[in-house]
Amino acid sequence: MHTSPEALEQILSRAASAAPVLAVLPPRSRAALLTALGDALDAERDRLITIAESETGLTPARLGGEVTRTAVQLRLFADAVVSGAHLDARIDEADPEFVLGARPDLRRTHIPVGPVLNFSASNFPFAFSVLGGDSAAILAAGCPVIVKAHSGHPELSEATAALAQRVIADRGLPAGTLQLIHGQQTGVAALRDPRVRAGSFTGSTHGGRILADIAAARPAPIPFYGELGSVNPVFVTSEALASRGPALASEYLASVAGSAGQLCTKPGLLFAAVDDAFLEALATAGASELGTSEHRLLGPRITDTYLEDVDRVLAVDGVQPVVIGTSRVDEAGNGWVTPTIVRVTLETLRANSEVLAEEHFGPFSVIVEVPDGTPLAPLVGEFITGSLTGTVHLGEHERSAAAGADAALSDLVTALSRHAGRVLFDGWPTGVAVTPAQQHGGPWPATTNDASTSVGTAALGRFLRPVAFQNAPSAFLPAALLDENPLGVPQERSAAGESISWGRAVG
């Protein structure tokens, strides 16, 4: 499917016309739209799941959970819009006695950036697609969204967009509120158009970097928020291994195998002083239904890349398979695979990090055998440039508050917090809770902007920009900055006379 240049021009024009209308839409009206979209998605879930299953090969159970997640995201942002916390309203009263000279009345808030181009993901046909988290955040911020459909599920994208447009029309909102385009070059052309004021993306590091560079090279550069590659390192302490090694082995395999390993949070590297009990438990799990049930990869291109990656790793001297996966390619070019997990020494990883310490999109992971007593924190800086997650599995004594934090483990956690967006304990990184405090981002190459997130209510801040109003008559102020506060949003006020006491609370 491909959107013609003439159709793209109409879409861009409609989005530009919708922008000022959506920007002044009352918060409760904006929230009502988001809730209605979630309700409509729930109402048509069975029909949409059938389409998604045929296009992606993902299971109905997985897709059903994703529809629920997507509807929850929309409702979460509806509540966030009404709360008004994202507006960050600040009011500094005029102060003739200000310590640096008379201060004017200053009021600062955030306003929508304008039309946003959202590139859908292949591996989340609902949660990171037409009505997924990015689109929900864009609409919550008060911006029109142009969704570039992913080529892996075009029919589903059309069906979801049609559903959304019916809801939008029923509420009397502009047709340019949410629109869909198809085609790689169409997406590039839209990204270059001056009417598009920001971009969002979930996909490969290679593709995301190209798009980010295009956004940065525009005559007037725009922000581009890309979620790219991530190896999601896991560190297992010797105490944790000794106390629950076999259970950790099964959990590890399940996290690697889930959704055929096609999750941006799949654990790609596991560092541990592994013992025979752990390896035997992992091999046993690999021989069970968990390890032998084959799952379809999303499409032929992902299949080809995954099989090439696995072959490259297995060809490295020193790589030892623990769970030996299988693969077959059907007549449509789709791959059907089972998990593969290998182990290597720390020395082998150092000698081949360009192959072993990179993301392999599919059910594949590498165990790195770390000699007991090896400081773990330096390994983070050595092998991890940036990641969405970092995980630590601790023993009971290590978790105990009474025992105090072990210095070496504290160093590990500090190192992970510098290189990952989410640090988790005694769990697995697959499974991203859709909740206000979530952080789904990280340093490059996890994302193009490590100060942002694509999950959680902070995600809508990507599509706002701050504006301050100085000595403005109330008739010209946004509602969030009015003294009577008709929206009931949080307002941070700096009263006249406060400046003479600044700093005294420290003493």
UniProtKB/TrEMBL annotation:
Domain of life: Bacteria
Record keywords, A-Z: Oxidoreductase
Keyword Ligase attached: no
Listed name of the protein: Aldehyde dehydrogenase (NADP(+))
Pfam families found in the cross-reference section: Aldedh
Boundaries of every Aldehyde dehydrogenase domain copy: 4-372
Keyword Oxidoreductase: yes
CDD domains on file: ALDH_KGSADH
